[in-house]
């Protein structure tokens, strides 16, 4: 018996038949006749020296050898297909597929896309708003924007900007609550989307502590999606502890204000991620450089705040909880 692999066409025929448990359906998938597919499987069985299928009257069943071979064949063709797609993408410098969380997509990317399209008319952008961890090859993604702590040792990882949180509200509502003390009586909104992530916590109680106020609000509307919480603040419903990336454009353009001057800085941050070696592909480099320019446009918002590291605010006991490594946002 030899370990030499059989012809790829025969293995492909077997894989299709094992998935469909039908020679006819497998032949249709591969666009060959059932007789041709049957011949390929027969040649594979001769190469192996034992049958892979039990041929029944109107169906087929895998033999023990077939059951052993089927998972590896399926995984092998999936891996080969992913590698082929990845290699083909290297030739494409006109399409860019980006994945980011729904909140970042809605509040950071979408409002700015016109500028990128104007500056890069030859690049076709495709977006996947998803929170799940991505496999760049399997999911055919070029760039991922993710929020968390890292590290990302197997990827090219570029921190986009440090992240802070500060109370934001409409100018009209701010006129009713001009001081931080007045927030005791304001309608408080809670963005709970990263409560489980930020360690140490950057919550309302911590912010009031940084402002020198002993207050821990517990009542108010709660939002599991960060962009919904920001939208509620924009509608004048209340005041939310807004994260920099999600509110900075609204602050820069005056739809929201941050009148209390204090922001909490967290070590969690958004990162620009792509496979190592891909960062200088033309469309990826163009998108990365554009993001950095856009961040610089609103840098004055951060400069207008007193930004306090959350570690400087909380007692040591609150700093001892483990730091989560990753958040697909």
Automatic annotation (TrEMBL):
Keyword Glycoprotein appears in the UniProt entry: no
Keywords: DNA-binding, Transcription, Transcription regulation
Keyword Nucleotide-binding: no
Ranges of residues in domain HTH lysR-type: 6-63
CDD domains: PBP2_GcdR_TrpI_HvrB_AmpR_like
NCBIfam families assigned to the protein according to its UniProt record, in alphabetical order: PRK11139.1
Similarity-based family: Belongs to the LysR transcriptional regulatory family.
Identification of the protein by name: Transcriptional regulator GcvA
Species: Sedimentitalea xiamensis
């Amino acid at each position: 018996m030899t370990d030499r692999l059989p012809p790829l066409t025969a293995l492909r025929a077997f894989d299709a038949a094992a998935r469909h448990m039908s020679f006819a359906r497998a032949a249709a998938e591969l666009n060959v006749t059932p007789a041709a597919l049957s011949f390929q499987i027969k040649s594979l069985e001769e190469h192996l020296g034992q049958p892979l299928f039990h041929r029944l009257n109107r169906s087929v069943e895998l033999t023990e050898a077939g059951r052993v071979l089927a998972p590896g064949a399926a995984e092998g063709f999936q891996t080969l297909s992913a590698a082929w797609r990845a290699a083909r993408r290297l030739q494409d410098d006109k399409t860019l597929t980006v994945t980011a969380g729904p909140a970042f997509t809605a509040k950071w990317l979408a409002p700015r896309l016109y500028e990128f399209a104007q500056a890069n008319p030859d690049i076709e952008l495709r977006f996947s708003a998803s929170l799940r961890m991505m496999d760049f090859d399997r999911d055919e993604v070029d760039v991922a924007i993710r929020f968390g702590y890292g590290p990302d040792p197997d990827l090219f990882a570029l921190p986009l900007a440090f992240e802070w949180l500060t109370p934001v509200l409409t100018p009209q509502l701010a006129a009713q609550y001009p001081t931080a003390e007045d927030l005791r009586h304001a309608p408080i909104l809670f963005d709970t989307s990263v409560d489980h992530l930020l360690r140490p916590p950057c919550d309302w109680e911590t912010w009031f502590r940084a402002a020198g106020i002993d207050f821990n609000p517990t009542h108010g509307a709660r939002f599991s999606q960060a962009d919904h919480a920001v939208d509620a603040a924009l509608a004048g419903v209340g005041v939310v502890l807004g994260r920099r990336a999600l509110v900075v454009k609204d602050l820069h353009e005056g739809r929201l204000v941050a009148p209390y001057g204090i922001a909490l800085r967290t070590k969690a941050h958004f990162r620009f991620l792509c496979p190592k070696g891909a960062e200088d592909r033309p469309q990826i480099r163009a998108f990365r450089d554009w993001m950095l320019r856009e961040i610089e446009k609103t840098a004055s918002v951060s400069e207008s705040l007193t930004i306090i590291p959350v570690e400087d605010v909380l007692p040591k006991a609150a700093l001892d909880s483990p730091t989560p490594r990753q958040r697909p946002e």
